[in-house]
Automatic annotation (TrEMBL):
PROSITE patterns: PROKAR_LIPOPROTEIN. Gene3D superfamilies: Trypsin-like serine proteases. This is Peptidase S1. InterPro entries: Peptidase_S1_PA, Peptidase_S1_PA_chymotrypsin. It comes from the Bacteria.
Length: 263
């Protein structure tokens, strides 16, 4: 039986509504599976009060001992000079955090990505998805620690609509608002990022952006580095959040680990 156009339209709308309902019902289960693989990034310095300083979010992939975060999160003077120990924070009961030591294996400064290696037994992992499949209008989710440890070590999840897929830097209307970072981006081939309508906070940097139905990671939240280019001309923060597509995480993981400098 052939349905009239109006009937087909109604059927399509009903199917879309049903799909959205299923995805909404799946979300609590997806979040429960994702949370154990989302960790805090911190530094430890003896004699400091408090000795552990939360600096961002990360998530575990691969063999359970590989952590992905933002490069700007681990670009700390104390880490660079060795006066602070880099680590990840985990918790099984959300009441207290345990810290594991970590080392930086690889970084991609241009795309603000860092790969860490942690010690101990493997942790639960997240699967990296195909970020090329993401379209404007897709509804995604990100989980992290937006307030750090101020209110306790608790995962926080936000919904985010993909509002635009845009180059990391837009041409400036006048040379007066160009800064060195924007010029460097313009000289190289600008990569594209996801512009989201969800609001992230400083501690959200490094949070996985994932499919609410499957939990597959499609990007990584980036608050500081991208805003330093796209929104350099704004005098007030806009609340717009950006994410680096997961394809660049795949590329980072495919690289050979960086070799320590010869002494």
């Amino acid at each position: 039986m052939r349905l009239p156009p109006i009937g087909l339209a109604c059927l399509s709308l009903a199917f879309a509504a049903c799909s959205l309902s299923v995805r909404a019902e799946d979300l609590p289960g997806t979040i429960a599976k994702v949370k154990p693989a989302v960790v805090g990034i911190a530094t430890l310095k003896k004699g400091r009060t408090p000795p552990i300083l939360f600096i961002g979010t990360g998530f575990v992939v691969g063999d359970g001992l590989t952590v992905i975060t933002n490069a700007h999160v681990v670009k700390q003077p104390g880490i660079d000079d060795g006066s602070e120990l880099l680590g990840v924070l985990t918790s099984s009961n959300q009441a207290a955090a345990d810290m594991r030591s970590a080392t930086i294996v690889n970084t991609d400064r241009e795309r603000d990505l860092a790969q860490l290696r942690i010690a101990g037994t493997p942790l639960p992992t997240l699967k990296l998805g195909n970020s090329d499949s993401v379209l404007e209008g897709h509804s995604l989710v990100f989980t992290g620690f937006p307030l750090g440890m101020i209110l306790g070590f608790h995962h926080v999840t936000h919904r985010a609509l993909v509002a635009a897929i845009t180059p990391v830097v837009d041409p400036a209307p006048t040379s007066q608002i160009l800064n060195p970072k924007m010029i460097a981006q313009l000289r190289s081939a600008p990569y594209k990022v996801f512009q989201l309508d969800g609001t992230a906070y400083p501690g959200s940097s490094g949070s996985p952006l994932y499919d609410p139905a499957t939990g597959e990671v499609l990007g990584i939240i980036n608050k500081v580095a991208v805003k330093g280019t796209k929104e350099a001309a704004l005098t007030q923060p806009s609340g717009i959040t950006y994410a680096i597509p997961a394809r660049h995480i795949h590329e980072l993981l495919d690289r050979q680990p960086a070799q320590p400098a010869a002494k």
